[in-house]
Request: fold
Amino acid sequence: MNANHTALASQLAERGYCLIPGVLPPGELDDLRRSVARDVRIHTDMPMPVGHVPGFLRVNQALAPFLAHPRVLGLAQSLLGPHVRISMLTGSVNGPGIPRGAFHADWPYNQDSAACIPAPYPDLLMHLVTFWMLTDFTEENGATVVVPGSHRKPNHPRKGGPVDPLAPHPHECRLLGSAGTVAVCDARLWHAVATNRTDRDRVAVIVRYAPWWLNLDPLRPGTVDRQDIVDATGGANAEVPSLPASVFERLPETVKGLLRYSADDPGSPG
Ligand SMILES: O=C(O)CCC(=O)C(=O)O
Reply:
C-alpha cells in the first residue's frame, strides 16, 4: 500500500469514511455536472427533489473515464483486494427542499433489504460507497449526514430500535467537500440524506466498489438469486439493471474490467 492509501485507509478504519480531494479535473467539472444533472432529471425513478437513477451508466457515461482513477481504485484495491468491481453506479441530484432522510447502512448491511447480511453483522469491510461530488457538498446544500465510527456497530438505526433513525445523532457530522472530491465510505457507516436548504441542486454520482467474493446477483434482475431472495419473497432490494453490451464496448479499457460482471452478453439486445 502506498503512503497516501495507508493514511486514507487508517481514516476509513477509524471514522468509516475518508475524503480524496481533486480527483476530477477542475476544467471538466462544469460539463460533468451539467451532463449528470440533466440526465438524472430526465431518468429519475423518484419524483424530484429526489433525483435517483440506478444503472446511470446506461444513460450517461460522462464519469466513465475516471472510474479507474488510481487514487480511488488504488484505495479500493488496497482494502478489498485486486479483483474489485463496480457493483452499483447511481446518478444523484438532491434538489432544493429535499428533506432529511433516515439513518441507515448501505447494502448488503441494510436490514431493510431482502438480501442482507443479518445483524449482528460481522466487523468486516465488504463494500465501499463513493460519492463523486460534482457540486460542493456543504451544510447548506445537504452534504450527507454521517456518524463517525458507526461502521464498527453490528447494526444500524431502525424503526422501533434503540436508536431512532429519524432523530439527529449527538455525534453526527457532514461529508463536506469541494466539487471534484471523492468521499469513500464503508457501507456500514450510518448516514442519511440531509436537507438541501439552497435553491441549487446538489449533484453527485454514487459509485460502489465490491470485492469479487461479494455476491451481487440479488441486485441483478433475472438471476436465480434475485428470483429466490427478492422476487419470491416480495422483499425490497436495490436493483441494478445490466449494462448494454453496446455501452460496455465503448468504455475505456481500464474501466471494462470493473464492469464486466454488469454487462450484457455481446449479441443480446442493447
Ligand atoms: O445523497 C446522500 O446524501 C445520501 C445518499 C444515501 O443515503 C444512499 O445512497 O444510501
Notes: The chain has a mean pLDDT of 95. Helices lie at 3-15, 29-43, 70-80, 224-231, 245-249, 253-259. The two ends are 39 Å apart (CA to CA).
